[in-house]
Amino acid sequence: MxxxxxxxxxxIRADEATDTFNQLFGDEVRRVTATRVPDDDVxxxxxxxxAADSVEDKPALVRVLLDNAQRLAAKDxxxxxxxxxxxxxxxxxxxxxxxxxxxxxVTLLMRRYSAARGDDRAAVAAETLAKIEAIAxxxxxxxxSKSALALYKRLVPLAAITGADxxxxxxxxxxxxxxxxxxxxxIELLKxxxxxxxxxxxxxxxxxxxxxxxxxxxxxxxxxSFLTDEATGKLIRAATRDTSExxxxxxxxxxxxxxxxxxxxxxxxxxAMLNHADAAYQRFLELAAADLQATQAKLMVARxxxxxxxxxxxxxxxxxxxxxxxxIVFHADxxxxxxxxxxxxxxxxxxxxxxxxxxxLGKGVYFNQMTGxxxxxxxxxPRPAKQVYWKGAAMQGMTITILDKRGKELASTGPHGGGNNxxxxxxxxxxxxxTRFVLRFHNEVSHWYYINKIELR
Length: 457
Hints:
Number of domains: 3
Number of helices: 14
Helix content: 40-55%
CATH topology of the largest domain: Serine Threonine Protein Phosphatase 5, Tetratricopeptide repeat
Shape: globular
Number of strands: 10
Strand content: 5-15%
Largest sheet: 5 strands, antiparallel
Structural class: alpha+beta
């Protein structure tokens, strides 16, 4: 990457970061702070953010740059957006500074909302809620239920302004965070009892179930798997693996186990267990032959989908709101065939994978239009998506369609054109799609069709 300022490319020790900043920007900082108008402070803050963007592998320097940028910009409401950008970059690029940066970010977001007036106030409220909610979700996912609960409580007044859906979702997340605090206390008590009575399988069983069901944390539960039977221990170990690594027998056993765990679980934990059961059964169906067991698995998938749909309709949240990745099934039987790995067309990037799910994984693929006109994906998501994003090339009469599990069209965009040029299109996901739906990409060119990226937003 080319540096904005040559001095920033030189190696630097952590204790040199402040000195380097003062050498590069000290005179400018003194100049703008001596004036009464905020415009020059904000402009300098933007320049410092740009300089930070050019720095690689020097977290101490990035931290000093972005911290000074946000201080300059945050002095006046006209610089709040720039200060927010600096803090977001700081949290993203310097993990050690993320907690402090997020604390400052929350304060600044609320300050900006308080300063908003007129027609802008509703839009600022929605953005403030989205950004703070994302921070709280991250805290809850990482196990910091106390901090997450405090943030969710701060969002309650905002959600009352932004709409009924937001109000219900924030309420449910607040309840989930409070529940997680109680669960954390219960886990500490169980660990204390186990320490006093090592090898007690009854206490161990309670601890394992609490970790798997309430905390959605099979990796932690695995530490105590010696206190359970061999079959359960095997399932716990399987639960720590990506579903794509499971064989058919393990996948179907894991699906059954997670479904059984869901049956007497409270709503948030139930949703997490059902999501895992669905992913495991989907993996089994990818591998299984068309026999009685596969038919039974399909019936289970349908039952699970109905239960998930009901919970999502209630805006139920889980202990790890963002923890599970989408489960994506590429329907090769209904889709155009892929070109071989290494294929390149029209000067676009070479194909790196023969997996039809490549565009979801950052690896573009070429489809042979001589073998059809459609590409089908079936999606099972941990939470509803708001938008589908597509990037690719060779579009002619291209449509993007969302279908429900029965094949009913829920939303569509197109036809789009553009030929052998880059194209980018989006399609909003209707609420009726829930967390399980089918994506169909239809195209009319005669030879090749390139999908570079598909994102769920």
